[in-house]
Amino acid sequence: MKEREKEIFTNRGITLVALIITIIVLLILAGVSLSFVFNGGILDKAQQAVNEYKNASEKEQNILDQIDEYIKSEIGGGTGGGTDIPEEPGDTDEPAVDSNGLATENTTITTDDPNVQIVIPKGFAPVILQTGRTDSLPGENGAVKEIMPKEDWNSITKEDINKGIVVVDNKITYDNGQTSGTVPDFNEYVWVPIVDSSKFVRNGWNMDSLADVATSNKFWEETASSEYTSMVDSVSLNKGFYIGRYEASKKDSVTAQSKRGQNPWVSVSQTTSITASSNMKESLNSHLVYGVEWDSVLQWALDSQAIIGSESGETKIITEDDVQSDSRSWGNYSNSTGGAAANSGSSAKVGGTNEYWKVNNIYDLAGNVWEWTQEKYSTGTVLAYRGGAYSNYGAGAPAAVRAYNDESHTNYNLRV
Q1: Which end of the chain is more exposed for a tag (fewer CB within 10 A), N or C?
Q2: Helices and strands in the chain, H and E counts
């Protein structure tokens, strides 16, 4: 028994000695490893790798920045914003203009509402009116004062557009070379926004039935497809269209103009009106207004809650009754009321004769003289004219009304 215990204790002693030796060896190896790590070993190598990666990243970013600057210098960095690639809302790039302040390329101005924009065509510019603003309320002087500085174009808002932005197609001078005179050297137009192109349709006001609406639209889609389709496509693409600010006057025997203070072009057939309108800006598809455009202008006035005169002489928000039932408070009629009554009841020069005869900066949509349209009234060559005349009652010929005659008919109250 004692011999067996002695053997066991001897084996245990050998095992303990082996364990102690193993621990000592491991401690020595650990010390060598730590010495390698802290004395120019792994940590130094790792730190060196981190520094080299950081330097490489900085060099790469510098190269990318140089490439970006080069691209911007070569293509202009998007400055000016054409209609092909509209600028994002809030972009601060200034539009490109010539020495007269007119756009050198088609320029799209966006607002905080992506559906509301204005396209300034090449050779045109938005303006500031005598009010010191882009709009003019009933009774306020709506004459053009100056071209809007290019740095302000991108500040045009949805509210500005819905009050009627006026653009001109030339520098602000007059026929006598001064800043005032009888015949401006520039035409004036107002941008009509079309937020939803699916609603660019005939309204149906003052028609006998919906069948009349279908006849009016279908006629032009089938018989004037090239021009009509181009017009519809343009409205859809640009989210709006321009309308002459004034009833047309005569530039020459075959060309109309939209200039303030002129006599309206009357005693003219619808056939001549088509030619005279297309000659104004042939390259921009200028044309005699279609029924769908006329209705869209009036619908825009309602949707934007335009301000017009009232029977009491104050101002108010336009209503559908003012458009299709009785327009005497904002047009030149034989029974005009309130502010619109001054100088009413006879044919007047366009713009400025009475500053109550307007809505959203457009003059004489109601009253003064009838206006030919490219709108089919019925079969054959019977076409529609719109808007009423000074000799009519406001309730008998409101802004939305249609009258009709043969395309060759002329009358003193009919204009381009």
Answers
A1: N
A2: 8, 17
